Amino acid sequence: MGPGQDQPRESHLISLKVMRLSRPSLVTGHSLYFGSPHGKSNLATETETTLQTETDEALDMGDFGVSELLTMPASFGNIYLGETFTSYICANNESAHPVRDVILKAELQTSTLRFALSDTLTGKHIQLLESGKTNEIIVSHEIKELGTHILVCSIQYTTLDGQQKSFRKFYKFQVMNPLSVKTKV
């Protein structure tokens, strides 16, 4: 390849999936009309999600645009100083062959410090990860510093023919101040 062209990325037998864990919220919807109490489902009355009005007319939670279902956040969202950052990390063997000696590391870097969140090398690393199987960990850390933070996930493994492979992925996020008080003198 000539200069200026991208080099092909090395393909790996293991994929890495990372998801920030946070509290789920209720699914919101838009109520287009107010249905009569006779037309509502039994689910609302069985789960006691109705409210009695002053006229003894029952209102369903759906009338307020909120359902009985929970949803996980679709985006990373905001994280604030003092919160606990929790993340789910999954190493998945997507190849047709098993891999050996899988080591999964997770670190959190700030502008001044580096924290080891998980290191399967110091603990018990996976001797053999079969095809289609996963290794999952959950890491947590209390956020004590404002600014840019980077979650660094590293995977090392050995193929069946003895070749050692590794890769890292970086997930950058901003920590915001939950409360800002300004005074004038």
Automatic annotation (TrEMBL):
Top-level taxon of the source organism: Eukaryota
Ranges where the Trafficking protein particle complex subunit 13 N-terminal domain occurs: 12-175
Pfam families per record: TRAPPC13_N
Coiled coil: none
InterPro entries hit by this protein: TRAPPC13, TRAPPC13_N
Gene Ontology CC terms: TRAPPIII protein complex
Protein name: Trafficking protein particle complex subunit 13 N-terminal domain-containing protein
Organism: Lobosporangium transversale
